[in-house]
Amino acid sequence: MLPRRALRSLLVAVTALLGTTLLASAAQATDPVDAAKALAAPGVPGANDWSCHPSAAHPRPVVLVHGTFADGTVNWVAAAPALAARGYCVFALTYGAQAGVPVLRAIGPVAGSAAQLSTFVDGVLAATGASQVDIVGHSQGGMMPRYYLKFLGGAAKVHTLVGLAPSNHGTTLDGLAALATQFPGATDVLNSACPACVDQFAGSDLLSRLNSGGDTVPGVSYTVIASRYDEVVTPYSTQFLSGSGVHNVTLQDLCAADISEHVAIAFDPVALHETENALDPAHASRTTCLSHG
Questions:
Q1: pLDDT tens, position by position, 261-275
Q2: How far is CA 291 from CA 12, 55, 265, in A?
Q3: Angle subtended by helix axes 110-128 and 140-151, to nearest 10
Q4: What is the mean pLDDT of the chain?
Q5: C-alpha distances in angstroms, 24 versus 20, 21, 44?
Q6: Structure confidence by residue, pLDDT tens digits, 131-179
C-alpha cells in the first residue's frame, strides 16, 4: 500500500492529467476550423482548401452559400472553380438539413441556417488568417446571410455580399412550388417539412424582422443580380435592396439575350463576371454577353 503522501501526489497527478485531457478534448470539440469543416460541402472543385492563404490581390476568402433544396456541392460546380482560378480562396458549405428529410438541404429555419453560416465563417477566418470574408449566395443563400449580418454579428466579418436571385423580400407559394419541381422529392416536403419555405413567404415574420428598419447594415457592400425570367422569386424586382452601399443589377441589362432564370443564374457566365466585378471593383470590367468568369 502506498504511503498517504505518495497516494496524494498520485491523485493530484492523475487529476491534473485528466483535467488536461478534458480541456484538450473540449478545445478540439469547439475548434472553429473543425466545426467549419464539418459543414463543408464535399467534392466542390476549387473549394474548401483549408490550407489556402489569401493573396494581396484577393485578401478576403469567398464563402459560397447555396439555395433552397440544393446543397453546396451541386450549386457551385461552375462558380467555385472559376473563382479559384482567379486566385481566390473559395469555401462552400452545406446547411439547413431538416430531421427526417434526406438529401434536400436549406430547408431548416433560416435563423438556424444563419447560425451555421456563422460557424462556417468563423472557421474560414481562423484557417486563412483573414479578418473578413466576402459572401456569394444564391436564392435563399443570398437572403439568409443578411440575417447573419443583422442579428448574429456578421457585419464585422463580412465585407461584400453578392446575392444571385436572392429572396430578399420573399416570394409566393407558387414561386416555391416552381422551384420544388427542379428537385426530386421537394414538392412532397414543401408544406410539411420546410420551415425555410415558410420563412421565405412574402410577409413572413422572419422577413418582416429582417427588413424592419432598412434592408442593409452599415459597413457592408451589397450587390444583387436578378433576372427578368426568374419564375421563383417574383416579381424579380423584389430581390433588390434599398440603402447605402447597394448595387442592383438586372441580368438582361448586361446582356439582353441572356435567358437564365432562377436556377440557371448560379451557373451563368455573365452573372459570374458581374459577381467578380462586385468582389474586386477596383479591377472591374464591363459585363457583356461575351463575358465569362
A1: 999 999 999 999 999
A2: 69, 24, 14
A3: 80
A4: 91
A5: 6, 5, 31
A6: 999 999 999 999 999 999 999 999 999 999 999 999 999 999 899 999 9
